[in-house]
Amino acid sequence: SIQETLKSFPDPFSIFYQPIDKNNLIIINDNSLNAQMEYYEDYQGIIKSAFGNFKKDSVEILNDVFKNNDFSSAQKASEIYKILTDDFIKLAVPSSLLEFHKKIIQHYQNSFMIYQAVSQYSYDPLKTYLAVKAIPKLYDEAKEIQNLFKKILEERIKDFNLLKEKKIFFGKFSRFSSIF
After folding, report:
1. Crossing angle between the packed helical segments 58-66 and 72-90, to the nearest 10 degrees
2. Is the distance from CB of 54 to CB of 76 less than 8 angstroms?
3. Is the pTM of this model over 0.85?
């Protein structure tokens, strides 16, 4: 039965998780301020480009799917997260930021797989059900990444005596706090 099948998955999130192979990443040994600033700028550009004018959160997407029988926003979200995954894999990352970078890619890949499953509700409702159950874990993961990102920025600002830049950095990235 469906209930027995669901019990065999203690964490629905785990079926959408695929580890990131660090051998597929472009890791540079340059950990200079310039290399890190370039990474942050590229990071911001990738996110802006991928999301464009798309502003729906998971609640709005789920309402579209289940209340309006409209799968387009779930499909769009999955496409965005696929683009983010692919673009971040291609983004050169200073070795000092590798763990953060891997977490970002992992999150976007998980998001892609989950929203793809939601967009395919009419073909595989069980997978969609598991995907919906995994969404709270996406939020937890996003919060962890946000906190890590803020910590890294604060350390870099402190390390390089860029206190004047702090507001600029957080201002630039504040829009993205809700889209991880």
Report:
1. 140
2. yes
3. no
